[in-house]
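cache lookup: miss for this entity combination. No prior model stored, computing from scratch. Input as submitted by user K.M.:
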Amino acid sequence: MQNTASKIKVGIVGGTGYTGVELLRLLAQHPQVTLHAITSRKEAGLPVADMFPNLRGHVDLAFTTPEEAALTDCEVVFFATPHGVAMAQAQQLLDAGVRIIDLAADFRLQDTAVFEQWYKMPHSCPEILRKAIYGLPELNRHALANARVVGNPGCYPTTVLLGLAPLLKPKVLIDTGDIIADSKSGVSGAGRKAEVGALFSEVSDSFKAYGVAGHRHHPEIKAQLDQLAGVSVGLTFVPHLVPMVRGMLSTIYVKLLPEAKSIDLQALYESFYQNETFVDVMPAGSQPETRFVRASNTLRLALHRPPGHPDRLIVLAVQDNLVKGASGQAIQNMNLMFGLPEGTGLSQVAILP
Amino acid sequence: MQNTASKIKVGIVGGTGYTGVELLRLLAQHPQVTLHAITSRKEAGLPVADMFPNLRGHVDLAFTTPEEAALTDCEVVFFATPHGVAMAQAQQLLDAGVRIIDLAADFRLQDTAVFEQWYKMPHSCPEILRKAIYGLPELNRHALANARVVGNPGCYPTTVLLGLAPLLKPKVLIDTGDIIADSKSGVSGAGRKAEVGALFSEVSDSFKAYGVAGHRHHPEIKAQLDQLAGVSVGLTFVPHLVPMVRGMLSTIYVKLLPEAKSIDLQALYESFYQNETFVDVMPAGSQPETRFVRASNTLRLALHRPPGHPDRLIVLAVQDNLVKGASGQAIQNMNLMFGLPEGTGLSQVAILP
Amino acid sequence: MQNTASKIKVGIVGGTGYTGVELLRLLAQHPQVTLHAITSRKEAGLPVADMFPNLRGHVDLAFTTPEEAALTDCEVVFFATPHGVAMAQAQQLLDAGVRIIDLAADFRLQDTAVFEQWYKMPHSCPEILRKAIYGLPELNRHALANARVVGNPGCYPTTVLLGLAPLLKPKVLIDTGDIIADSKSGVSGAGRKAEVGALFSEVSDSFKAYGVAGHRHHPEIKAQLDQLAGVSVGLTFVPHLVPMVRGMLSTIYVKLLPEAKSIDLQALYESFYQNETFVDVMPAGSQPETRFVRASNTLRLALHRPPGHPDRLIVLAVQDNLVKGASGQAIQNMNLMFGLPEGTGLSQVAILP
Amino acid sequence: MQNTASKIKVGIVGGTGYTGVELLRLLAQHPQVTLHAITSRKEAGLPVADMFPNLRGHVDLAFTTPEEAALTDCEVVFFATPHGVAMAQAQQLLDAGVRIIDLAADFRLQDTAVFEQWYKMPHSCPEILRKAIYGLPELNRHALANARVVGNPGCYPTTVLLGLAPLLKPKVLIDTGDIIADSKSGVSGAGRKAEVGALFSEVSDSFKAYGVAGHRHHPEIKAQLDQLAGVSVGLTFVPHLVPMVRGMLSTIYVKLLPEAKSIDLQALYESFYQNETFVDVMPAGSQPETRFVRASNTLRLALHRPPGHPDRLIVLAVQDNLVKGASGQAIQNMNLMFGLPEGTGLSQVAILP
């Protein structure tokens, strides 16, 4: 084990939400990290383990105000905040040599007009944005190694992008004009905000689609798919809310191009992801369940060719929305940025049952 | 209120499963029915309210053996049994003038080869099958009024067929070669059988697709769509399991034909279903939740035209899989067959929360 | 069916919470009621079925302001509001001859000092309070028939009081100094308020005790038990939160007095409740489940004498907290107040599964 | 890291149930263990990760027959089997020098007559039983260090015993004749058996007491309490089923003896458990939730003195029934038996949300 002096000094801005407590859970077990500060103006002074008693005995930190936090002393700062916070503080941290991983959307969308349309605020630091890297390690590993600012992907985009990448890169094998992602998420994706719509009595024992007319992750997925495919793709994306706490499954429907029909797609996927620590291509015909990845950083994929539809491919992708879909992926990015083995501190086995 | 003499004398074969107890719940409140007998060889002698204590004070019947049940004295017999039971007993009941409503699959598929492929048993009474009516009242109302044998639809088919009918009849408005139904069901659809896969600890707080390689409801949906459209349609159908007891939502993706793009589809649907008691076309842009129909016989629909996709239509359909998807629909069929107002005994308001 | 003229004209104040929508669900099916008005200053103008789409096709009313509502035209007004609202409006309604059923706590506690201690507000109409009747029909039936103001019981008190009444009245059979009620409630009991503690992600797949240091229903239960027993009882009451929407179970531990040990308590309970429509004494040894009463107005009881403890009696009581524990009981009270058969409009069979 | 040669060679008998997969999850992350074999006659040949895909990438073992497993080559064998299996194989393993940790009940009850009464089978190896140690490390640490056979405690007993031990040892501070444990468990405690009663549709969104007339853990708790207290205690124990997968909470009601009323019980508990890795005495007045310990080996306790009841003490205890209540505790025992730090491989932070 390294001594403390050589560990990464980490700060967290925000931290009273679910991605915050999940960062803490994972970082508390990370052998190369020291938690330096966690900020919350509202909760300043409160031990984090009083708010999240699962951390009792594991995290001694208390929330502090941003002023006291001395975040410029950190080597990396995670923003587990609402949209707009990271961009307000980025320049100051960068000036002090601190690297930034934003779990909100400030650095996900290179097109600021699109950002402003969907997030209803101007982008305050487009120059930093231009240098920010989209934090999907499996696709951007080399750029991430040198990144100063990382826009950690949305939860839905992670499933759809890793589900489709092997079909788009290096060669487009599908009709890019006709991609459907029917996605389902657990309720923790809605965050830890006091809203009637996320009450137990509103969502338990029920199921619905939401955001059908437009969801913020649609432009994010499309921008990344466009880049992978080299063309503007046609994407239909419908998110749904599942009465479970964690977990996300995307059922992705694509049409194979004629030249793809003879390709062994299972082998293609297995080859594409063969060196990945956190992407598991399950055997052909598998039916992944979200509990197969609960509380772990693994995303599992399965391919299906429904009988009687020679050009139809169905990709199933599952992840824990709070881990691979948020805080685990952020730590995976941190590992890359600091030259650590990508899986450091992320070897947890999924909880089943 | 009619006197007892004029009430419909009803028998139930099976009745130890979820469609059985749901039939009993609804029939116990039906003003024009007397429950004559309920059979279960295994549970003969047991009061049904001992097995299903929600019925205490409402149903006094005990299970009896088929021999004791004198089903031939009934006017109508519901089969809430595994596949294959109704066809074994149908001829004898018909000979006695008893009408039959089968909640299993024996009388759903006119093509016996398809039946045998999917249900792994020969069809023992193809002549009765030929005269059987597919029990979807909104589409087959006139035929049902005179039916002697009704094949009550599967739960998934009800959502997809009612979701698409206005687009196919009288005129085909969509690309029939490219229909996708991404359907999600509560766990009660799996029945009340002792199976590891339906244990609470296996399915709670998790989500999965299943039957991706082929589900028995696929040929049923396709056969009915083929008939509605007058051509062989291309259907991709993927069912999913939601950790909730009751409820079903289908997200249906279709492509509009050029001539359909100028049609007011919302008005078309509202017109198509304007006289229906149990189909509710919600305002455009609505996002129906399964709890909006919990424990009621109503199916609610909503239409969405996602921005940027002028030819894409998304239909959302929700129902309670045990009511409109099974036992409620069976009673709706019974009402039709006996000349009662279709909604008799089915006016329950959905339970929310 | 009576004609409209003879129906009870009903108003509801509040109605955007769970007891409100449950009142609407039940009153919409009540044959002797016309819904006259439902008020919500905040939602004025909104059709109630837009907020609660389960009511689509059943309730046409829109929310109105209290000013527009003309509540003084009603024969009875239900208050489904926070504590303190009913007492502010009671005098005006009473002056107009309107009867009042308050589902909050304003008229539950005769001791205003206790009320003020627990509800943190002065009681503004102690004279009305003195004439108010505690709305537990099984114990106060005669007084309720002539009541002008009814304090509808809390959900927990209903289970504990009906669970213990046969042991206290006409004769005390238990050690009144040592009563323990370990109660468990579904989350809908917390209401439809935007609070972090009731979010799905906070309470699903978890379990806790709450209010251990003191819960508002403790003084209410104690006051009624004191009255039944004729002495000041010693009550330990610990509520717990169950990850389910509806339902409540109280496990009540008492010690039998020596003279009670020879009594057939099962027979005593059956006799005590033999004429009750909504109390079901299950066979000795039964283990009632909350789903046995889901969405129905029935409370089911079972008695247990654990082996090896001759003086220990355990009473299990289950109800739907929103029906018998709130809105159903309120309607049962209304029926009594207007001379209708007590079960009118309340014959729903519990939903299982 | 130690080299493989020095690691503990572990075998598992059974392993197709929830305690089995939980053992595998935890042992796969244990730095001092090599998994040698896992047996299941029925599943022989199947990779365990095919049955439990959460283990993909973490456990390469396949199930083997007992014959092939060469369990006598192991240093320790866990039995994650139905009751009766361990006692049938114990002598042979002991003769080979293998230590045994049984997660079933074969070695929990020293009184074979009681065992036979509750488990309906004769005890086949009473001499081994006499030397077996009850595997509750916090109470039996020294004996466990030299144990050859460990009876791993039941889940309920762990909560009640750790909840009461400081009140009984070294000095009895409570009325031992009047102990009530009202316990609530998640459904995984029922195991991974195909039984109707544990189906999702039977237990979800519902709550019940069970085993009120007698539960197998009653004699186990009583035997251990008797030993702690040095007298025969009077225990009322009522288990309940909570619609959640994991988690257990016991609400324990006791009466303080006069001499206990002046003692600072909070300090007493904190002192009693001050050196324990896995028992957390929360601050006075805390309300522990089962999710505070989900998937971790920690048991958390809180004490309450309800106002107005000077002699009443309420102890709340939560644990994950599959970890501290089963497999985690088994590994804690193994660590003790092999001279490892007790927390080795058990440092997982609880999963919240």
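stored under new cache key. Residues 323-337 of chain A form the longest helix (15 residues).
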